């Protein structure tokens, strides 16, 4: 269930839905993977598949700072107790930021695969990470020793501290929920019926998980199941809890967002999303407002009590960048690429490098974009023939080590239409 590797392809299917947008914050050049809210409710922090994180003003609905450091998708973000921020991503790095500074204050290394979840301890001294290297990291924010906790047999997808900070809860694809004491001791382990993608802990100690079977499960602080609710027909990929612990928001890969009354174990609202995957969700401190982020790169605001979208920002309107090429077969083939690539260097950066001036450029030579080491060692110059070969064989075969999702174009005619289109659309832009 490696959904991240197919994210660009999934996004492309939804990037230009004709349904009127109710977007609030538009700035990422690809799917929004994570959202966090500051304790005062004035700021949001988002992480995207475009390798950036953005700090937003929720009062003005504008970006205050774009954080660029990671070389791959930013999968997890958090506000720290001292006002700083944490970002973590598919490059297995954790960066600590001070607002306004262009570079991280500190970078933690130790994981060997994508990091997909962050949690801050109640006292603000520790940061926990969940990684696809099957481990949990606990990082000291005050100069103490860090730990790597081993025990999961598969990808770890979620972490959350208990309210008293004495334990850390982790969940993974191995169906295990582990409760790790923060002092040296053996963790309690609960085996659940489904792979687990997300976890949250209520103020009273109750543990909530979201699984691959679309169910939200409730457990005691010691890991014993007390109930479940079917919240979606596709895997639950993110959970959020209101600050007072009364409501849970569960998002699914199929696009559904359910607001659940925790005590009643019932769905009180289902948000009217556009059906695209929703990867991120967070409550504002008022416990009545939600932010969601998903495959179309927009962050939306919702009334959690009524299920209605809240307002609409002028930034929400997003035109089709291929509108000028209506009826062009090559443009239609390229539409599957537009979620990750732009045709012009003037457009905001997306997950992949711009294709501006593509033909005649050596692979992995575009200034300002961080390519994988494997690509920088290749001797390929992009031409209509090499681009056609890329999509005939597939990126993993033609350019092994690429971060590009695997996709092929089987039709010779479609490959020719695409390469001709790229020649026209990027001609003379170098």
Automatic annotation (TrEMBL):
The keyword Heme applies. Keywords: Electron transport, Heme, Iron, Metal-binding, Repeat, Transport, WD repeat. Residues 325-426 form the Cytochrome c domain. WD repeats lie at residues 25-66, 67-97, 108-141, 149-180, 271-312. InterPro entries: Cyt_c-like_dom, Cyt_c-like_dom_sf, Cyt_c_1A/1B, WD40/YVTN_repeat-like_dom_sf, WD40_repeat_dom_sf, WD40_rpt. It comes from the Bacteria. Pfam families: WD40. This is Cytochrome c domain-containing protein. The lineage of its organism: Bacteria, Pseudomonadati, Pseudomonadota, Alphaproteobacteria, Hyphomicrobiales.
């Amino acid at each position: 269930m490696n959904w991240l590797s197919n994210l660009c392809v999934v996004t492309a299917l939804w990037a230009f839905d004709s349904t009127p947008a109710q977007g609030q914050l538009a700035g990422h050049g690809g799917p929004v993977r994570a959202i966090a809210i500051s304790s005062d409710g004035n700021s949001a922090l988002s992480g995207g598949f475009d390798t950036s994180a953005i700090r937003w003003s929720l009062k003005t609905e504008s970006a205050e700072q774009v954080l660029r450091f990671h070389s791959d998708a930013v999968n997890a973000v958090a506000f720290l107790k001292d006002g700083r921020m944490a970002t973590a991503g598919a490059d297995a790095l954790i960066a600590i930021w001070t607002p306004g500074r262009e570079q991280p204050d500190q970078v933690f290394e130790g994981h060997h695969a994508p990091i997909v979840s962050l949690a801050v301890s109640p006292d603000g001294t520790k940061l926990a990470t969940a990684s696809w290297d099957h481990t949990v990291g606990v990082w000291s924010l005050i100069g103490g020793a860090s730990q790597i906790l081993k025990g999961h047999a598969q990808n770890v997808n979620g972490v959350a501290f208990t309210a008293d900070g004495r334990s850390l809860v982790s969940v993974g694809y191995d169906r295990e929920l582990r409760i790790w004491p923060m002092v040296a001791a053996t963790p309690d382990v609960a085996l659940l019926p489904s792979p687990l993608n997300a976890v949250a802990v209520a103020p009273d100690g109750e543990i909530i998980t979201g699984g691959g079977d679309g169910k939200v499960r409730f457990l005691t602080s010691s890991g014993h199941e007390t109930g479940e609710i079917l919240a979606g027909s596709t895997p639950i990929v993110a959970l959020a809890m209101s600050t007072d612990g009364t409501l849970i928001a569960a998002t699914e890969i199929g696009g559904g967002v359910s607001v659940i009354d925790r005590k009643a174990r019932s769905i009180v609202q289902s948000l009217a999303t556009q059906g695209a995957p929703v990867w991120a969700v967070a409550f504002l401190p008022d416990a009545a407002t939600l932010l969601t982020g998903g495959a179309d790169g927009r962050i939306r605001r919702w009334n959690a009590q009524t299920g209605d979208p809240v307002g609409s920002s002028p930034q929400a309107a997003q035109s089709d960048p291929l509108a000028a090429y209506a009826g062009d077969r090559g443009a239609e083939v390229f539409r599957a690429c537009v979620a990750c690539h732009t045709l012009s260097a003037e457009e905001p950066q997306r997950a992949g490098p711009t294709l501006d001036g593509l033909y005649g450029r050596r692979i992995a030579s575009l200034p300002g974009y961080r390519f994988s080491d494997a690509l920088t060692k290749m001797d390929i110059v992009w031409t209509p023939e090499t681009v056609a070969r890329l999509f005939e064989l597939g990126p993993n075969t033609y350019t092994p080590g690429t971060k590009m999702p695997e996709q092929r174009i089987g039709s010779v005619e479609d490959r020719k239409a695409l390469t001709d289109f790229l020649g026209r659309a990027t001609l003379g832009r170098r």
